[in-house]
Amino acid sequence: MDHQAFDTIAQALAGSATRRGGIRAAVAAVLSLRAGSAAARPEPQGPCGDHSQGDNRCTKNSDCCTGICSLPGGGKSAQAERKGKGKDKSKGKHGGKAGHCRCLAAGKACAEDRNCCGNIGCIDGVCGRTRKTKPVRNGRPCSASDTCADPNATCASYQWGPRSSSGAYCLLATGGACALNQDCASTVCTNGLCAPCSISACGDACSPIVCADGCEFTSVQDAITARQGTPDNVVAVGAGTWEEALNVTGDVVLRGCRGTEVILRNPAYVARTLSASGGAAVALLDLIVDGYSDKGGGNFGGGIFTEGNLTVAGTTVIRNAAWDKGAGVYLAGAGKTVTITDEAVIENNGCTNRGGGALVEGESDLVVSGSVIARNNLTDSYGAAFAAVDGANVTISGTVLVTGNSGGGAGLLVYRGVSTRPISVVVEGDAHFDANTATSGNDGGFVRFQNVGDGTYHEMDIQIRDRVKITGNTATGDGGGISSRWGKVTLSGSVELSGNQSAKNGGAIWISPAYSDPWPDGVTGLSIDGSVTISGNTAASQGGGIRLQGTVCTLSGSTAITGNTASNGGGVSLRSYYGFSSLAISGTAAITGNTANTTGGGLWSDDPGNIVTGGAAITGNTPDNCFGATC
Hints:
By secondary structure, this protein is mostly beta strands.
């Protein structure tokens, strides 16, 4: 874990939380995590070093991270020197003298794009040459090979969105399926489709229709009332603080202009800033929804309440409060989706019950990508950052940072409630969950999965994969990183769980039946495969790495459970709770180098009926490898 990177994020959020520059700084810090904490992936060696060109010396073009290798004597390149075409007196033998990497300006001869400086490309052997009659991407014209998946898309000089077959950027026309606003050409992305835009331009510049003087409207609510539910439903708001309690009853895109600060705030601080009823679809782009203080707020949804689809893109939701649920964002209803994306920040919101940052309640979906969720809190119940309850699905993907959230529950709560809908939870990509805390004796420092205990097993499938990091989280109950009651958890890829702590059991992971209901036969509660690392976690009682209660666990691939500590079961603890537990180890998976303060340095069991296979992989633990079960 790179604590310096997280300090950078914290400073960016603390100092500039209401500025898009602060958002960009925070997300940029997230992007540095992979490079800053990649001890397991050594940087390439040689003149390029860490890809910053090192000391910039080279003997051939391939030594250069970008540009060409210019050798002493004035030769154009290392290849030219070797052929005797340079100006040095070695006549093709540069004598081992190192050159320096340099990029080529526009108009200079080149062999490939990387030879050229900045964002210009190598066109027909010359840097930056363009054909004015065709669209240009980074100084390079679109060619016949620039074929976009959408036949109506255009290739343009835009650095977001899907790529063509040759790497150009494809901007989508009206009706094209999109994920972000930047995917669209002269339209905006709303509800997953590029929609018409009523303002003079879309993207990084726009012309407001709401401003204090000289615009069509001087009130945000008046503009919403006039435009919602019509084909011309984009409301662009000019810079400033707009103190209005906004009500939406029809589909609308509400946006600020990038490069400006547009703040929406309820003037009374006792109700919601925005309420969307009747299933209206709302997109908030490049805005700040600021509750101004930690007091007041609506009963449900202190900042935003919706009964329809909601997109929060490039928008900060900060300092909102609710007396009960969903301080930042609250969706109530079935068959809808809340999408938080495109450098959105959900920060410092708080309520007493579920969903300090966002709550999705009912058989709907929560989708989060490319965003920061920080320092939200609860004074009671669960789900300080997010809560998805009563049959809601969750997808968290890409570069997402969830950090510093705390309260009576985990960073993420997924709770079945009364729904019988199969629940899917997917956490993937470069998502990072750090320093979240479950207080007041509650479980799951990062996440708490809870299936209702009604005597009937309901499907709850949790996939955590790719390069996800779960680090430095704390539970004052069980499961410092992950807590799951009756939810099947699968870890795969290069997932890392490190430095998590539990005041009870399961420093990294705690898996249990739903209260008094045992796991059904044939259900594997925890499956770990790939190059998963569970290291440096701590439990005050049982299972420094993993605590299993009456469930089946499989470890395969190159999984490593190492360096964890507990009173008993430094690596893994098995308990016969409403059914025996079992652990099956295969591949090169290993439990090694763990420590127990009492017994079971590698594995501890409370019942010899608990089954362990592949126990030969449990080695080098202190004070012993196994206690209470045959390994």
